[in-house]
Each structure stands twice: as C-alpha cells, then as structure tokens.
Amino acid sequence: MLRSRLLPFALLFGLALLFPRAAAYEALASEVLIFALLAVSYDLVLGYGGMLSFGHAAFFGIGAYSTGIILIRLFPSIPLALAGAVAVSSLAAAFVGYASIRRHGIYFTMVTLAFAQMFYFIAFKWTSLTGGDDGLQRVPRPNLGPIDLHSEINLYYFILIVVAVSLLVIVRVVNSPLGTALQAIRENRDRAMSIGYNVDRFRLTAFIISGFFAGLAGGLYALLLNMVPLGSLHWTTSGEVVVMNITGGMGTLFGPAVGAIAIILLRDMISNYTDSWSLVMGLIFMLVVFGLRGGIAGFLRRIIKI
pTM of the predicted model, to two decimals? Predict the structure, then answer.
C-alpha cells in the first residue's frame, strides 16, 4: 500500500527535477510546488478526515507572516524562520481545531471560516507588525550555508527538497493507524465511536498536522515572493485549495497535488490572454466536477485500468 502511494509521487518528483526548464519562468515552478504541498496538507482534513474547512488560509498565512517577521525582526536564518512558521501555525491549528472540531457539517465549516477571517482582520489592522493592507514587505532571503538562494533556480530546488520530504511524511501519516482511523471516521462516525475510537482526538490530530504543513508552505511562499501579501490569509485562498482538492481528487494525496499543478499553470496561462481568467477557471472547474468522477486522479485510474 505504501509503495503504491509513493509511486505517483516518485514520477512527479522525476518530472519536477526538469520542470524549471519547461515552466514559463522559475518562480512559477516554485509556486506550483508550494501550492501542491498546501493542497496535499489540506487533503488530510478534507479527503481523509471528511472535514470541509474554509479556514486553511489562516495557517498558510500565519506561516508566511511568521517566516517574514522572524527574518526581518529576529534573525536572518531560513531554518529558524521555517521552524518558527510551523510552530506558530501548528499552535494556531490546535487552537482553531479545539474550538471547532466538535462541530459537524456546515457548522464546522463556518467556525473555521470565522477564525480565518479573524486572523485576516488582525493582520489587516496590526500595521506596525504585518504592514496591513500592503502586506509584509522586504522579506529577506538569506543564503543557506554556501547555497545562494537569491538564485531562483537554487530556491526552486531547495523548495523541491522540502516539499518532497514533507510529502513522504504525509504519505507515512496516511498509511499509519491514524490514517486508517480517519478514513473509518469519515465513512461512518457513529460506528467508529462504537468500536472505541476517540473521534475528536483523531480529527484534532489530523487538523494540527495539516496546519503544520500548511504553515511550512506559507513560509516557503514568503521566501519566494520576498514579501507576504495580506491575501494569503483571505478566505479566497482557502477556496482555491478546496478547488484544487476537488479538481485533483480528494482522499488520494496524489490528486490534490495534480490539481494544484493544473490550476496554477492554467491560471498563469489564461491570465496572459484575458482579465476574466477567474470566469474561465470557474467554467473549467464545473466541467471537471460534472465530467470527471473522482477528479483528475480518478480519471487517470480509469485510464490505467483500461
């Protein structure tokens, strides 16, 4: 089972090694990797835990802001900044998860959205720390030992290594007893409770792990942009991640990664031709939902079986 889950990612990793040469520009390739990690981390919550959260942008944005603030105000060290990002985003996920995990369905969704908007308005108003509407500007990108990360290609391969290791950890989590319990809870919560599963504890653990990797993706995003846009905390970012999961195929890990790749690349290409790119993306999303059962991953499975 573990080997079958790793094989698609191994193929993606091989393609990722050559991707900067095929992408329109190297920063786009790095953005694809970052959002692939964010989408896969969210799959733990939605695809495996069955929890539709509209607050995941909070952990992504908190990770980005934490990285930027550490690099600007504390110490210019990338390992320290990323460690701070995952620590703060994990704490935020624990807080939000503890407050919302006992709610179900639309109530859970609305509570997570409310918390995300709370973090958004804190960042918007706390201009002395976050830069307010202008975002956090001039985030430095110090060298990583002898590696010059001012080079976009060096940054890309650094992000690739971080994302690859993160995906290995997430695949291992999914194939652990925690992953099995999450799927059981998703399929039949009452039956899982009847055989002794502590449903809230498993759901909260998955929520925190997901927040950890979302924060890591946010930290990488701050390094890529050399700034933190306020929009990284907005609910629309959460919506994009939901779309990536549904388009790629929930509950597969591989699917959300492919969904993120497809959406980021399509958005970049379409926006070069029209200002109404969001409308075109919406139409494409509707076609995928109605035409591809199980998303892109489900379609690929059927093709391979044929």
Answer: 0.92
